[in-house]
Amino acid sequence: MFLLSQATSSFARENSIYFAMNPDITRERENATFNVEKLTHILDGGIEKTKRRREIESLVISDPDFQSEDLNFLSRSERYDAAVKKSAQMILKLREHGISDPEEIYCYKSVFRGHHHEALGLHFVMFLPTLYTQCNKEQFKKWVPLAESLKALGTYAQTEMGHGTHLRGLETTATYDPATQEFVLNSPTITSIKWWPGGLGKTSNHAIVLAQLHTQGKCHGLHAFIVPLRSMNTHIPLPGVVVGDIGPKFGFDEVDNGYLKLENVRIPRDYMLMKYAKVEADGTYVKPPSAKLTYGTMVFIRSMIVREAGRALAKSCTIAIRYSSVRHQSEIRPGEPEPQIMDYQTQQYKLFPLLATAYAYTFVGQYMNQVYHRITGDINQGDFSELPELHALSAGLKAFTTWTASEGIEVCRMACGGHGYSRCSALPDIYVNFVPTCTYEGENTVMMLQTARFLIKSYRQASAGHQLSGIVSYLNESEGRLQPQSVSTRPTVVNINDLASLVETYKLRAAKLVELAAKSIQLELQKRVSQEDAWNNSAIDLVRASDAHCHYVVVKLFAAKLGEIGDTGIHSVLSTLALLYALQGIQQHSGDFLQTGLLSVPQLSQVSQRLKELLAQLRPNAVALVDAFDYCDEMLNSVLGRYDGNVYEHMFEWARRSPLNKTEVHESYHKYLKPLQAKL
Amino acid sequence: MFLLSQATSSFARENSIYFAMNPDITRERENATFNVEKLTHILDGGIEKTKRRREIESLVISDPDFQSEDLNFLSRSERYDAAVKKSAQMILKLREHGISDPEEIYCYKSVFRGHHHEALGLHFVMFLPTLYTQCNKEQFKKWVPLAESLKALGTYAQTEMGHGTHLRGLETTATYDPATQEFVLNSPTITSIKWWPGGLGKTSNHAIVLAQLHTQGKCHGLHAFIVPLRSMNTHIPLPGVVVGDIGPKFGFDEVDNGYLKLENVRIPRDYMLMKYAKVEADGTYVKPPSAKLTYGTMVFIRSMIVREAGRALAKSCTIAIRYSSVRHQSEIRPGEPEPQIMDYQTQQYKLFPLLATAYAYTFVGQYMNQVYHRITGDINQGDFSELPELHALSAGLKAFTTWTASEGIEVCRMACGGHGYSRCSALPDIYVNFVPTCTYEGENTVMMLQTARFLIKSYRQASAGHQLSGIVSYLNESEGRLQPQSVSTRPTVVNINDLASLVETYKLRAAKLVELAAKSIQLELQKRVSQEDAWNNSAIDLVRASDAHCHYVVVKLFAAKLGEIGDTGIHSVLSTLALLYALQGIQQHSGDFLQTGLLSVPQLSQVSQRLKELLAQLRPNAVALVDAFDYCDEMLNSVLGRYDGNVYEHMFEWARRSPLNKTEVHESYHKYLKPLQAKL
């Protein structure tokens, strides 16, 4: 994908290093103890899936229309322009290639986007699906063809300046006027201005607007309305619609996240999505049958975010670990050549636990996706029984995985030293594009507290003698086993080399921390504060309990995955990774394990020692383990993470294409520096 | 500083909220229990200093030449252009105003820059100072006037593509040719290309180049050379000089960090800086008297970085805490109005420990600066005795403070929810501008290991019976008090409400972790590995020991500062902050304190409980404590951090100025979307 500049390619030829594979990275691959290709199949879910994925990826990679300048060299307006262009091309190409399966579309777009975004993202991810699920028959007939033919370019306008995660607080109003049979939409306060929706600023001509429905003098809460924003002919904003871009952000440069201020905008009655709730012509409100229906979508999106956490971390590890295998620096033994930086224990300690985490989250994402599809089947048959648990789990896991993955990306970036700070490493882009997941689709702390609410409720049920099932069934054991233990009572049951034993330890930690949080609430209540204040005054403990619960689930799922793997070499290396993941979590949270009496001080020293051994044990397989993620160079778009390991010559080449190098002398010299010199 | 667009200012007037102070934030200020102004004086170092700082700041703020568009709205080339323009203006203005004291220049530039950078930064910070200290008399006479008049615009070219922190590995060569009495400079490999120096790409016409000196067939290591890069008349690069911008980065958009490839560039013999080392006309090398001289500069720069860690965190806390006082969200008690988000315990737990850290680092920065100046006096009198300790301490503290501050800035940003992700919050800029401190001036892990080397050396000296003095004197106690203790032996000496007792506890933790690291090395040596491998195989423990040492120093210095404060109200609130800082550190590292037997499990529960009380206790003073940092709105440049708390109306106004809003319909609609619609 790199367009060689004349100067650099000749430089590369002169030094005749251009086409050769870096010998360091070749040696790493030769030393691997397992079959990389087979592991890739496991990650993809089967050999056929790997094959099809690669076919689709090569469609994009080999397509001359998609060879373009690095987005980092463009201004924001140019980047937006490029995103719209590619989105338009992509829609036509997907039709040409006959790709229509959602997984395959996702795969196609993943390459195409690199770390960047499409202009019509929310049209496909939110606007169309909402039409599919919330239109009644007549509405479906009208709107779906308009949306599918992109005559109606849509987005989903929920978040306002004043309210995000707390949906009930949204202030936009839709007031029914029976005289004209219209809804009148308004942004009554400055905080009610819609803010953040992707594609709202410049791209969309329609939006599904979430607004408080008022009819017959009564407010019936949030409902969804189709609001035309711009003329379908001229794209000029319609009267009463104040719409625009919210300005530059940390990342997402090419996306026109927008604002929308509605000033007495009138829409026909049947622009309210009426599959469930209705407003009749006279203004009578008919309420929907169940409120739980929207849970499903949230669960699905959160499971996708967990999957993205795995992917973002996998990409970051690929870059940092490959670079660490070709970067030589300083010395371990005097007089010897500079070692690969991956030989430093501190570097291994930064990167290998993150590598293990990337694998863990990938497996958790797969699990959540399976459960979602199974439960969706149940829901369609009217069985909502598993939904609360899954909803609670998805909230916590979304928060747990996005927090750790975000931090992990930055650790990977800094593990690449100064060059990690260059946009050519791709790591800044991975970070700024991923880190908003900590905030959107439910702010992480709020998510953790949602999971905690479920845990405390379950704990109380168990305490009251109810038998819990599912993932929280461990709380059944509370009464018997969770007696306060002195740390000096050394448990001999934990075997730090046995993953099953560690899963059990994580489980008991979660149980104890849930109990601790419940007791904190109890203690507050004894001070005669209200339930609500007692909850808020225990929030630190509640988040800690949720965190421990999620950590347990991740370790458990990682261990469970090992049971599915037949290949000995792969089973062995993944077992090492899983053990590393579990033990590093124990070391990081050693206070919890000591405080709850689950581990003794000597055991903790053993954990530290064992961790060092595991790092050394993983060292020869590190590059192979990131290779197995199978991100091609075009998807990584990182000079440091190149498969061939030839980073320096390509960094030089990349730099020479920087816009500031278009002229030898920048105009600012003539404008400011020369006149300044004359004055001094 | 905000240029109001017509539409928004009328919107603001209509809602008549424009000029009023947000009542929430006013109430916060009324509830403070101490005198903010007096605390500002303490932070500045005296009432006179506060006065003078404000005078200087107002010179910039009131200067119409410095009212300009938000840099976030400009392309990179425009930003570079703006930076050069402002740098040029500033130089003239500083002369006009007669500001020449380095502290006052720093202050002037701090406002001017906001979070951004000057184009000639390295000219003043590295080029000129190096000329001052390393030129011999003749060189001084020639170069200093050229540099002071900016005829010679200089930078400092040390880092190469292949080597950063490990200076000995630098590959650029300067080979003396006695025939012409010139040095011939070369970049012999691709990794030897100079990479990263600020101002190197487009601005500078000279650089001080660090290169391996070869003469009479022998290499004498790194020396500094003045290398002309561009014509002083035309600014065109000179023959053999391949120079340019290294391309876009995570931040520092307006800086032209550069590359420099030298191809047989010849410079006269006396372009080598010869105050200490020399090469005579015939090529004879004369070595410098002492190698320790450069330590001083490193210590100074690292003390400045610690100070910047305090400032970056102080700014971030100012923004996040002010915003948390005006942002209302969700509910604690049903039916009541939405609370300020600062009322949530989780929000307090995110922000208040960081506020305490900002104060801690500010005091540590002040201390290091004082020590530096004291020791510089000693050095000038030939006394180097304290230098190794200060050098080691400055390395560790630089790493310790920059890591935690970087993480803290992101915590502040995310504590502002979605709006923290907008560039209008200023938090993304603070982060990307600060986070490179983790890498430059010595990569943090390497710095931690440098401090560890000093600690282990000191520990061994103490073990051998030498009496240590200074900050590591606590290692003297090793033999007596650091016997392994069972965790069940509950120490009763620690009083968690007494700061002095906590300082002692931190000290013992450091002592134990240094001992643990030393024992790990010992254990490795018993396996018959070499000293160097034993060191590398214990690196995790060594970093942990350094971290504990630095943490001890910070807690100790914070406690010591309290002793200087007479005002009761301020003493009280700072004591609460210091206690919060110390206890939160214990909670975060509870495993260490339990493992070393310094705290018992019940004590740890008390710590958790006490922490919650301290959060509640600080709540009424939070806004006042950030006000005391006294960053004016122009310096913060943050919509969320405004002193008046009127965030939403200004966010809307800021967004409307986004370049994407220059036209109602973006050209990409006509170029791509309309044609696409026609095809479907």
Automatic annotation (TrEMBL), chains A, B:
GO terms for molecular function: acyl-CoA oxidase activity; FAD binding; fatty acid binding. One of its GO terms (biological process) is lipid homeostasis. Its cofactor is FAD. Residues 498-676 form the Acyl-CoA oxidase C-terminal domain. Residues 156-265 form the Acyl-CoA oxidase/dehydrogenase middle domain. This is Acyl-coenzyme A oxidase. Residues 35-151 form the Acyl-coenzyme A oxidase N-terminal domain.
